[in-house]
3-isopropylmalate dehydrogenase (Methanoculleus marisnigri), 322 residues
Amino acid sequence: MVKVAVVEGDGIGREVVPVARDILAAVRPDIEFFDVEVGYGRWERTGSACDEETIAALRSADAILFGAITTPPDPGYRSVLMQIRRALDLYANVRPIRGEGVDVVIVRENTEGLYSGIEWTEPDRACTVRVVSRRGSERIARYACTLAKSRRHLTVGNKANVLKSDCLFVEACTAEAARAGVPCTFCYIDALCLDLLMHPDRYDVIVTTNIFGDILSDAAAYLVGGLGLLPSANIGEGHALFEPVHGSAPDIADKNVANPIAAIRSGAMLLSHLGDPASAAAVEEAVDRVLRAGIRTPDLGGAAGTREFGAAVLREVGRGKA
């Protein structure tokens, strides 16, 4: 029995994740789902957003379907996602950007950089340490090279003209690409952000450091219609978590207007990770058929609600199995 932990989280996560879960259950009735509560809502109620018992529950799963978490500007609140990524060593953040004329995968180092968690505040300044280690750089480069070997080429996004830490990152990526026999080019991240938007056909697999990958992949959502369409995976040696790229969007929560496509496609990535590409393809094709039928949520110019869009995809999945 495959066990999948379901974390709805906060805001629109509580709306889009149940849609994705229902679709996964339809294509894979053998999956055993179990709920795990983390996030700001839990923190407000109990004083703890995520604890060791929660981490243990997540560790027990074969995969995790994750919603969205609100992170308030409160010094007493620790980022839940950063805790989980470190605890499960989910070092590779994988964000496919696919649409008409666009097929790019952004691979982001997920545990270091400016999200290292090494921070402190002084009377006249606040400090965050940017950590780029050789081990972290080499393993994210190896992961990106594995993807690039089955595709076309690798681009290394960096700021090595300014940051010494990026010199190490570029060096590690160069060596790993050479070992893997993967064609590799380099681009400064500011120029890459613009050129990717102008000429997405030039790019295939992009690997970069933590915050650069976060910003670049969010900007790249413009190419395919917005953050509501982008899935992602957080991959480690023994664990994997799948989540939509968008945030908790509290301003539209509980209004049945959130786009569930990113959550649904994150579910498809989860199925691929579990070794079931056929079911993953069935989910992707069902989403495409619904969009071609003109059923869209408000962010895409339509009038369908979150639940109604999910129901339409569920019907298409059923037709595909018939």
Remarks:
- The mean pLDDT is 94.
- The longest strand covers residues 92-99.
- DSSP finds eleven helices and twelve strands in the chain.
- Residues 1-90+236-322 form a domain with the Isopropylmalate Dehydrogenase fold (CATH 3.40.718.10).
